Amino acid sequence: MLGTEVRELVNETKAAGYYEATFDASYLSSGVYIYRITALNGDRILFSQSKQMILMK
User: Fold this and answer.
1) Nearest-angstrom CA–CA distance, 39 and 17
2) Measured distance CA(19)–CA(16) in Å, rounded
3) Which of 9, 13, 25, 38 is the Cys-Cys partner for 48 at CB 3.0 to 4.6 Å?
């Protein structure tokens, strides 16, 4: 794990609701990646969670 940012999927303000984002991992190699989901209200963090994703090709 190098700690390098691979991709940023969404970085915009959205109204409450259900959203989907498509992640194209065709340019990545197999391995373990860490992703983070963060919800902000101004500068205040409302929610932040990091998880691992295993990519197998």
Assistant:
1) 13
2) 9
3) 38
